[in-house]
Specification:
alpha/beta; 6 strands
């Protein structure tokens, strides 16, 4: 067994315990589409020095990332390089993206890194995409991993249209048009998404996919289940380390 495989196995076993503390056990991730995924020798060292900024979804918080951070630590990251950005789910995603820009700059200053990686979930996809595309944040981001991101909107947002963030998250909104028109994956940032037909919240589930990204279908995983899916989270750690 290779060093990388042994570490992955150890990471998965240890992280499952943390996962059970948050949500019910998720369905295992299916085989991802690796047609355009980067390849890396099993003997090459993982690059785990890149700071990672986690961006939660609608009504989420930093606590959503307990399992993800555990998986990242078990794959070589230091806790001092793992950060969770929190924002106002009921406000405005433009302001949330501006806040993310400030947060990333603070992380760069604190760590001395020139770039960070971003991992987002659900509405965090909108916040991240606006930051990278409209605010030019792609120059500060090496990798972007979108987990069940509402990148092209979701009709499920129709249930909360009283809030600006949900209006922006509804398919066809002017906000969605801004982040999807033209190049959806600008700059030299490496983009990847993880999505599933069993999501249940991102409707249609294909909304997560980004043109120009490595789009990874997961056989059957729920929207919240992704947050504790140690298999998918391990793949994301590998993607950012590549």
């Amino acid at each position: 067994m290779s060093r990388r495989s042994a570490r992955r196995l150890t990471g998965v076993i240890a992280a499952v315990a943390a996962a059970l503390a948050l949500f019910s056990s998720p369905t295992s991730a299916g085989a991802a589409d690796r047609a355009t995924a980067p390849t890396r020798s099993a003997t090459s060292a993982l690059s785990t020095s890149t700071p990672v900024v986690f961006v939660h979804g609608y009504t989420g918080s930093a606590s959503n990332w307990v399992t993800a951070m555990s998986v990242f630590r078990l794959n070589g990251w230091s806790s001092s390089n793992l950060f969770a950005y929190e924002y106002n789910s009921y406000g405005n995603n433009i302001a949330n993206a501006q806040g993310l820009a400030t947060f990333v700059n603070n992380v760069k200053s604190r760590t001395g890194a020139s770039k960070v990686a971003i991992v987002n979930h659900s509405m965090g996809g909108l916040v991240s995409q606006y930051y990278l595309k409209v605010l030019g944040g792609n120059t500060s981001v090496s990798h972007l991993a979108s987990i069940a991101g509402a990148n092209h909107g979701t009709t499920y947002a129709g249930a909360c249209l009283i809030y600006t963030t949900c209006q922006q998250m509804y398919p066809g909104s002017s906000f969605i048009s801004q982040i999807t028109s033209g190049d959806e994956t600008p700059g030299s940032t490496r983009y990847a998404t993880w999505y599933s037909a069993c999501d249940g919240i991102i409707l249609p589930y294909t909304s997560t996919r980004l043109t120009g990204a490595t789009n990874n279908p997961v056989a059957c995983q729920t929207h919240i289940g992704f947050l504790t899916d140690t298999s998918a989270l391990g793949d994301i750690a590998d993607f950012i380390a590549s």
